[in-house]
Fold this sequence. Notes:
CATH superfamily: Glycoside hydrolase/deacetylase
Shape: globular
Oligomer: single chain
CATH class: Alpha Beta
Radius of gyration: 17 Å
Strand content: 5-15%
Structural class: alpha/beta
Bound molecules: zinc ion
CATH architecture: Alpha-Beta Barrel
Distance between the termini: 17 Å
Strand order of the largest sheet: 3-2-1-10
Helix content: 25-40%
Number of domains: 1
Amino acid sequence: MDKSVTIDFEFDWGSRIKSDYAIRHVSEKILQIFKKQNAKGTFFISTETLPSSKEYIKMISDEGHEIASHGHRHTLDYDTKSKEELLFEIKTSKELLEDLTGKQIIGFRTPAFKRSKYTDEILEDLGFIYDSSTTRSSLRHRYKPMQYANSKKLIYVSISTIRDKLPSGVKWINLFGYKLTGDKPYIIYAHPFDFLSMREILKLYDRDKISPTVLLFYLARVGSLYNTLEKIVQNSTTIEDLIKNEVYTRENLS
Ligand SMILES: [Zn+2]
């Protein structure tokens, strides 16, 4: 099966709190699971995490996984930034990752599915080959599928969906089962913070400020997320390899 399991490295809960706890406590275990299954994946890095994630990213890259860009700061306004601001975030991230890995960074994923009318142009100018910021989810209001995705040069690597609704996050697969629909190859995603226990969440968050979203995250952890990941990473490869093997072509832009 053509599939890539992708991991988004960012501060906890998409930088809602500036904590690097999950990166420090979960990264190695995720890597071990890939290794055990002899699988490869693509890791999208928000480079504001580099002070804590640097050593893991080197390790990930050296083990043959793909490193890609998840922007510099993981802010939730990548759809409303000016062109200069957006260029700064994406360019900074690409340069930092290329310095760190010594490899060309060809893939990008925008934070929170927020594409802008400038995203295509900036990615093309910076020499990116693909963008994995889109989804075929039918929840148009929340996930804005294929927003501003009009490039003739970029390859759009859409995140798969569960029953055409939810994007295929490992936490949702854990909750609703592994019945993906829509375009192949399957592109699945997870974050290090998805794997934290409720006890760890309570330690990180001010108990009074725990939002329903965070509780949902916890609910989605019914059963062991690590076991789910172990099943899901079987036969996973990097997006770069899917492209090399011509699973994607520019003619069949997804
Ligand atoms: Zn993210």
